[in-house]
Hints:
Shape: flat
Number of helices: 6
Strand content: under 5%
Radius of gyration: 19 Å
Structural class: mainly alpha
Oligomer: single chain
Distance between the termini: 31 Å
Order of helices and strands: HHHHHH
Largest sheet: none
Helix content: over 70%
Amino acid sequence: MNDRANARHDWLNGWRIAGWGAALALLALPAIAMQFTDEVHWTPLDFSFAAVLLFALGTGLEFAIRFGGRTPKGLGIAIASVAGFLTLWANAAVGFIGAESEPVNAGFTVLVIGGALLSLIVRFRPAAMRWIMAIIAIGQPVLGVAALQVMPGHAIEWGVLLVFAAIWSAAAFCFDRAHRRAAH
């Protein structure tokens, strides 16, 4: 390797160490807080869930660097990884609609996990990824409409659903740009 490639490799390793270290630190915070206050009470299942979410986020960002780098495809993978993390975390913490245990909230989890599995199946090819991300973006407000029918009387946070739809749409836009660049 030349000096420039070595410098990039060293920089990447430094960021990788920092990123995975930050994930471990975030996972340790509730354990530390539990030593000082009774207001934080995590079970082993809570720690396991958080570890899986943080691992998925870190792996998604690793995929973004490995398969996309500093291209629209890489940015699309990174945005989708963060959007998936935030969707699952928020949904498990408080639920998008009503409490986290409401049945409609399972739809948000299905969208993210289904999107992740499809992304692996299509090997992050931008032509397919733009549609996967678009379907997830459309699925956010569609689940809100479904909740109006299934859960009458519950308040729907349309603003939150639309913000998440916009994030997923941004990922779809990045993949569309990557696809168009590859086609030219």
